[in-house]
């Protein structure tokens, strides 16, 4: 039996705690630590099936985090703080000799650019210490990588094209809000778009390519916009037959209208602006004004649909497969007090933790999700609340 240390007590941290508490065959104790301890205490109060401790930590301080890990002695640190903390928490795990898992790749605070190179550079250090780091164990990245591995294992001899499509067909009723940390969300959405084509990254302006996609199970047509997402980088590296890989996300006209105005007036800037004698980062100030994503849970209705369409060859003939999950916001809230975006991230994080702690996914070094067997992960994820649908057919090329 194992103990986990969860760092970060936002919407995702809440779901991870609930779901780790349900994995009683593997996890029998947890500590939740974050910058604001009262948020950890509020989550701990919702869990009664196992002992939960809480702690205050600034995860940017490697010595402080190392001391916490040594004091708590977990078998695994689950990092669901912000991407800025990734390298600091990896350093602390190395110093304390404990395995590591996260859901988003490292991003330097002063540049809106994210890529795996900084974390892949830890490969030798983790391997030499016989420790494991599992990167991107959320839904996208995370389950989308596992779905791609499933397509390669069971449906296609060679994946040639990949479209990852993320729909939030839900409604929170707010004029403008983001479903996860507003600062990270807006940095991601406003970044230059990159997709993979014939061995190169092709850059296009943010959200400049749009299609209508007919989502399954009664969700129906919605506008999807192409953007860069981090799993594209690891997938084209680890599955080199992929000639074209794109990521698409739905946005409402209302969200895009607000975003455009906020960008035009400078509110999404991440450089310091001098205001009344102090430096202010406009995007951080905007975050303070916007609804806390954690508060959207009781307000959000509808469903999410996130999945991959993989196209390629099977027995020399063209074949296409669409692998997806549908998650209901209301059901997620009823179960964990969080809406489906936090839920679809937290369940795979807890599932990845179970895979590592039970030794099913276990090897020293730094790994992405598609580098492990997909089936045990998907079976365990189903028992923790997220099921998978596989459909073969034909979909229009995007
Ligand atoms: P929130 O902003 O709701 O929560 C982040 C938590 O981290 C807060 O409790 C915050 O503390 C804490 N934190 C921030 N900085 C520090 C620090 N220096 N030391 C300790 N704690 C800190 O974010 P979410 O829960 O929505 O998202 C969590 C992570 O999940 C993010 O990295 C996000 O990118 C990722 N994510 C991944 C997805 C996927 O599918 N792969 C999808 C959605 C999110 P405080 O409350 O004091 O600010």
Describe it:
The chain has 2 domains: 2-135, 3-Layer(aba) Sandwich (Rossmann fold), CATH 3.40.50.720; 143-340 and 385-392, Dihydrodipicolinate Reductase, domain 2, CATH 3.30.360. The chain is built from 14 helices and 18 strands. The N and C termini lie far apart (46 Å). The strands form 3 sheets. Strands 7, 8, 9, 10, 11, 12, 15, 16 and 18 form a 9-stranded mixed β-sheet that branches. It has helices spanning 11-22, 37-44, 62-72, 86-96, 117-120, 123-128, 143-155, 182-189, 231-238, 253-264, 282-289, 329-336, 340-357, 374-383, and strands at 2-7, 27-34, 52-56, 76-79, 99-102, 132-135, 158-171, 193-197, 200-204, 210-215, 220-227, 244-250, 273-275, 278-280, 301-314, 317-328, 365-368, 389-392. With 398 residues, it is α/β, with parallel strands linked by helices. Bound molecules: NADPH dihydro-nicotinamide-adenine-dinucleotide phosphate. The site of NADPH dihydro-nicotinamide-adenine-dinucleotide phosphate has 34 residues, from α1 and α13.
Q: What would you say the CATH architecture of the largest domain is?
A: 2-Layer Sandwich
**Beta fraction:** 25-35%
Uncertain ranges: none
Main sheet specs:
9 strands, mixed
Provide the helix percentage.
25-40%
Give the ligands present: NADPH dihydro-nicotinamide-adenine-dinucleotide phosphate
CATH superfamily of the largest domain: Dihydrodipicolinate Reductase, domain 2
Summarize model confidence as the mean pLDDT.
96
Number of helices: 14
Large-scale geometry: globular
Structural class: alpha/beta
The total number of structural domains is 2
What is the CATH class name of the largest domain? Alpha Beta
CATH T-level topology of the largest domain: Dihydrodipicolinate Reductase, domain 2
């Amino acid at each position: 039996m194992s103990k986990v240390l969860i760092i970060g007590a936002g919407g995702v941290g809440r779901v991870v705690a609930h779901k780790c508490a349900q994995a009683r065959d593997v996890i029998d104790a947890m500590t939740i630590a974050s910058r604001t301890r009262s948020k950890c205490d509020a989550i701990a109060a919702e869990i009664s099936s196992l002992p939960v401790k809480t702690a205050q930590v600034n995860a940017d301080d490697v010595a402080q985090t190392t001391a916490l890990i040594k004091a708590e002695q977990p078998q695994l640190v689950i990092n669901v703080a912000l991407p800025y903390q990734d390298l600091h928490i990896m350093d602390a795990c190395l110093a304390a000799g404990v395995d590591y898992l996260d859901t988003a790749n490292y991003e330097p605070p002063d540049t809106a650019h994210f890529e795996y190179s900084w974390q892949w550079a830890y490969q030798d250090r983790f391997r030499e210490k016989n420790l494991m780091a599992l990167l991107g164990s959320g839904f996208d990245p995370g389950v989308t990588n596992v779905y791609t591995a499933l397509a390669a294992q069971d449906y296609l001899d060679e994946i040639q094209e990949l479209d990852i499509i993320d729909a939030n067909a839900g409604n929170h009723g707010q004029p403008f809000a983001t479903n996860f940390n507003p600062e990270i969300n807006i940095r991601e959405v406003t970044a230059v778009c990159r997709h993979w084509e014939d061995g190169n990254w092709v850059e296009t302006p943010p959200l400049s390519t749009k299609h209508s996609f007919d989502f399954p199970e009664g969700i129906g047509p919605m506008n999807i916009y192409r953007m860069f997402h981090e799993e594209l980088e690891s997938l084209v590296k680890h599955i080199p037959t992929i000639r074209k890989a794109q990521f698409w996300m739905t946005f409402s006209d209302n969200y895009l209208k607000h975003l455009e105005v906020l960008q035009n007036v400078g509110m999404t800037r991440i450089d310091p602006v001098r205001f009344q004698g102090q430096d202010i980062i406009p995007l951080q100030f905007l975050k303070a004004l916007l609804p806390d994503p954690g508060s959207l849970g009781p307000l959000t209705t509808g469903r999410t649909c996130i999945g991959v369409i993989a196209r390629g060859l099977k027995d020399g003939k063209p074949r296409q497969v669409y692998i997806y999950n549908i998650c209901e916001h209301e059901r997620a809230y009823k179960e964990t007090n969080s809406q489906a975006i936090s839920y679809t991230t937290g369940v795979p994080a807890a599932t990845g933790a179970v895979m590592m702690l039970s030794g099913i996914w276990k090897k020293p070094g730094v790994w992405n999700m598609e580098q492990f067997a997909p089936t045990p992960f998907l079976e365990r994820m189903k028992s923790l609340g997220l099921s998978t649908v596989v459909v073969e057919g034909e979909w229009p090329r995007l």
